[in-house]
Design goal:
400 residues; alpha/beta; Rossmann fold; Alpha-Beta Plaits; 3 domains; 14 strands; 44% helix; elongated
Length: 400
């Protein structure tokens, strides 16, 4: 059995009224930054803040009465778990989710809050998946795979259909790839509705599973990425077979581009994106010449990011833009020195965030003192103006 546009149209009919028909908006500022005409599909506005609701709900709605009574099971540590739990609760279908032991507590609690039974097992997703398969056999449950399932793919494909209904003249569609369910569904819908539309996959550089298979290489996947939603070591068998003939190419994105994209969504679109959710925009930022002048559909696929990680990403972005910089100053250890330096920074319009003072650094004279001063500025040019002012007053700084 393979995926067809008929499957996707049937899924759209089932999902109508049960999920959000999320908005797609042209972003003037992101277009100026990337050089492309950027149209953003805001899937973070689904109730569980992810596109995964589409596939999970479509699968649940295709179950017969006996399967609904027996219940479903899945292995997932993320958005698929919450989507399946939420819609299972709505439909009265018992849901069991197996998660690795190291799954963040907040994700476990969110899934339980939606009424699912959560089983913590194993150190990795694969171990959790094996345990889910064992429970499925023991209790005769229905497995709802996160991506390698025709009905799940059909549900995800409704996203691309909506994108083209809202903007029929898109030239390019950027689609995240983890296990491949989203791109299999979206590419099928997009190519059926507009055969000349170019579909590009996007993977985190640390997890190039689709790319490696496409090139006949063994994937060297692993590492700590903020795009954990697409950090999949092996693309699905069904998803790859369906998507590969329809995908023009796959773009790999590094962590800096993913962080920059998350920050841009927050600062420009005032919308929260998780790392995987921002991957399409990250691809445009990393390869501007490739998509310049094209009308590009980008999927903000999810907004479930840990608040501490989001805070870290936004702070790191300030550092990259040199709006938050730490300056090291060495001067005489005498009363009033810090007040003098502070006055210079304040007069130049800088805001002091933090000061660290040491007299024990061996590369500083015994009668000297070393200050690390973190300051907030308007931009890189303003930072340079403050550094010049300090230098003119006899306190040459060094960025650290």
């Amino acid at each position: 059995m393979t995926l067809t546009f008929d499957h996707i149209q049937a899924a759209a009919d089932r999902l109508n009224g049960h999920i959000e028909r999320t908005p797609q908006r042209h972003s003037r500022t992101l277009s100026e930054i990337t050089g492309a005409e950027v149209f953003v599909k805001f899937e973070n506005l689904q109730f569980t803040a992810s596109f995964k609701e589409r596939g999970a709900l479509n699968k649940l709605l295709t179950l017969d009465e006996d399967e609904r009574r027996r219940g479903v099971i899945a292995a997932s540590a993320g958005n698929h778990a919450q989507a399946l739990a939420y819609h299972g609760q709505r439909l009265g279908v018992p849901v069991t989710i197996v998660m690795p032991k190291a799954t963040p507590t907040v994700k476990v609690e969110h899934t339980r809050r939606f009424g699912a039974e959560v089983v913590l097992h194993g150190e990795t997703y694969d171990e959790a998946g094996d345990h889910a398969a064992a429970i499925r056999r023991q209790f005769d449950l229905v497995l709802v795979h996160p991506f390698d399932d025709i009905e799940v793919m059909a549900g995800q494909g409704t996203l691309a259909a909506e994108m083209l209904e809202d903007c029929p003249d898109l030239d390019v569609m950027m689609v995240q790839i983890g296990g491949g369910g989203l791109i299999a569904g979206c590419a099928t819908a997009a190519k059926s509705m507009k055969p000349d539309l170019r579909v590009f996959g996007v993977e985190a550089a640390m997890y190039p599973s689709f790319t490696s298979r496409m090139r006949g290489l063994r994937a060297a996947a692993g590492g700590q990425t903020i795009a954990e939603g697409i950090a999949v070591k092996e693309v699905g068998e069904l998803t790859y077979a369906i998507a590969r003939p329809l995908v023009e190419d796959v773009v790999l994105v590094e962590e800096a581009s993913l962080e920059h994209a998350v920050a841009l969504f927050a600062n420009i679109e005032k919308s929260v994106a998780e790392g995987a959710g921002a991957a399409g925009l990250a691809a445009l930022l990393a390869h501007p010449n490739r998509f310049r002048g094209k009308k590009v559909g980008v999927i903000l696929s999810g907004g479930n990011i840990d608040s501490r990680l989001l805070a870290s990403v936004l702070t790191r972005e300030l550092v990259r833009e040199q709006r938050l910089v730490s300056l090291r100053i060495i001067g005489d250890d005498r009363p009033g020195l810090l007040a003098t330096v502070s006055a210079v920074i304040g007069a130049a319009g800088g805001n002091i965030i933090e000061v660290a003072h040491t007299r024990l650094a061996l590369d500083v004279p015994a009668k000297g003192a070393e200050f690390d001063i973190m300051i907030e500025t308007r931009d890189a040019q303003h930072t340079q103006e403050i550094m010049d002012a300090l230098r003119d007053h006899g306190y040459p700084p060094r960025a650290v």
